[in-house]
Amino acid sequence: MKAALTLLALLVVSSGYFVNESFAEISENQAFLLEGSGFAVTEEIIRISEIDLGLSSQDQRGSTINFLTEDGFITLDDEEFIISNLKGKFLREGKYIRINGNIESSSGFDTSISFFGRLVSESKDASVYGFTGRITTSDDTYKVIYTTKLSNLIKIDSVSKDTTESDDPILYILRGSSSQGIVEDQTVQGGREILSEAASKQNPNDALRLRYFSLDRISVEPGSTITIVNDDVVSHSVLSGKENSDRYIKYTADGRISTGEILPGESATITFDDSGFYRLYDPDYEWMGIVAYVFPASDSLIFGEGQNTGN
Fold it and tell me: C or N terminus of the chain, fewer CB within 10 Å?
């Protein structure tokens, strides 16, 4: 019995420490991505559902921090719902997340959601939450079950590279991105070199995936300019757009960002004039995707680093 009580005490202390460490990563005026998938269930059917939301934390009151959903979508099979009016809270020092409000279908019908997430596990740069809740459409009420990842944008003070005279932060298109790091014909010029260099930038836990950009997501203040350098062996262009649920047409351009053609070894600059959530992609190689989160901040320019997989 004494041993059991000692173990219970240790678990309580460890649990409290774990939650506090998680909360230390969640503060006011931060950007987050909530991404995941699961199922939406009624008594008659089971539909596959995905969630992809951009969040910005707001004011803190005690152990609760309010947040707004800036952009994103929720899907039911091939039906996509865009964000209309969603708000939420990080509760009990980040241990729980609550999201409530309305989303809008492509046909214009309002749909309400009510989600509640519990912290499952965390790493130094992201946390896993399990969500349950409901999606209520004009026809049905679905019970939802999600597994999601909440990731924030890591802050650094500055970005400096010797390869350019510009003071603008730099985003690199990595060599091998156009071929997803796969060069089947090793006789092509530079084929082995491209494959080797691409593989060196892949996630070591998944040899089939490639980082296409030097950063997988960025966060800047409105009015900020960044430089995009093409280190690949073919031309690229970068547009901003809306991500679709269509597997064949992944993005639809929204006209906010367009670099034009960037030749190998050349660069282009883009300026984020308006606050919001930007999805940047290459229209010729749609696996090359990156998220830009633009919102006012008291801190200096923010960049986040990670393993971009183009998914």
Answer: N
Closest CA to 99 of 60, 134, 63, 62: 134
Q: Are 128 and 120 in contact (CB under 8 A)?
A: yes
With H, G, I as helix, E, B as strand and everything else as coil, classify residue 48: strand
How do the domains of the chain map onto residue ranges? 22-152, 170-304
Domain covering 22-152 in this structure, CATH number: 2.40.160.30
Q: Residue with structure tokens 């050349």?
A: 266
Q: So what's the pLDDT on residue 163? A: 41
Which residues of the chain are modeled with pLDDT < 70? 1-25, 106-108, 153-167, 181-211, 245-247, 296-311
> What pLDDT does residue 229 have?
93
End-to-end CA gap in the chain: 50
Whether the CB-CB separation of 167 and 154 falls below 8 Å is answered with no
- CATH number among 3.90.25.10, 3.40.1190.10, 3.40.50.2300, 2.60.40.420, domain 170-304: 2.60.40.420
Q: Are strands 285-294 and 217-220 parallel, antiparallel or unpaired?
A: parallel
CB–CB of 131/146 below 8 Å? yes
Q: How far apart are CA 104 and CA 112, in angstroms?
A: 9
Q: Report angle CA 213, 218, 224 to the nearest 5 degrees.
A: 115
Determine contact, residues 125/154, Cβ cutoff 8 Å. Answer: yes
Equal CATH topology for 22-152 and 170-304:
no
What is the distance of C-alpha 187 from the center of its chain?
A: 37
By CB atoms closer than 10 A (0-12, 13-18, 19+), residue 108 is exposed
